[in-house]
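Late entry, flavin mononucleotide complex.
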Amino acid sequence: MSFLEKLNWRYATKAMNGQKVPQEKVDRILEAIRLAPTSSGLQPFEVMVITNDEIKTKIKPIAFDQPQIIDCSHLLVFAAWDTYTEARINAFFDLGNAIRGKSEGSEMYRQKLLATYPQRDAETNFQHTARQTYIAFMAGIAQAAFEGVDSTPMEGFENDKLDEILKLREKGLRSTVLLALGYRDNENDWLVNLKKVRKSKENLFTMID
Ligand SMILES: Cc1cc2nc3c(=O)[nH]c(=O)nc-3n(C[C@H](O)[C@H](O)[C@H](O)COP(=O)(O)O)c2cc1C
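Prediction complete; structure with ligand written out below:
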């Protein structure tokens, strides 16, 4: 199957059958998330990978009782930095120096970010970090499709309550979006055989030649 065929195969799975996704497939999905590009390369988020049934049971009622929370194999929680701090920015540039060696260019860029991001209000910074999580989220969705693994992207949950369950705020994180990984329940998923609904190319793209 081509990449586009796989993207057509995937859909936001509404019912999963509880089957476990093999670890090597999960590892490759997580690797795609790790490799996703982010603004300045800062990767301003963490991802919680939940298989624990007790935690899943706590999450379900604050996610509008969506059954995939329990019936998925792995539930990924994308959690963005609550703000940019000097320490977080420095850690990123220190890592870059350790991997690539120090350069004048990167040091100048470090100073530029240090002079810009930590001074901004936390909400503005969070809106920026949150956007970065969606890039990695889509990389995970695409890799899951590539692996023949179903997934459900989910914003349908109460962020504050999830932050409390996972103690994210204490770690300087705020949940943004969930990705349930698993396998479709062909018998019980009302969406499984429905056609995709997408805008026409004409309505989506404007060619400016
Ligand atoms: C950011 C985001 C949040 C979503 N939240 C939910 C959700 O909470 N529950 C759900 O069943 N589907 C959710 N969806 C699935 C969308 O409704 C679905 O992707 C869209 O209708 C397109 O259909 P398809 O993914 O099946 O092709 C979400 C999708 C995205 C991208």
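Residues 11-12, 14, 66, 152-156, 177, 196 surround flavin mononucleotide (CB under 6 Å). Will revisit in the morning.
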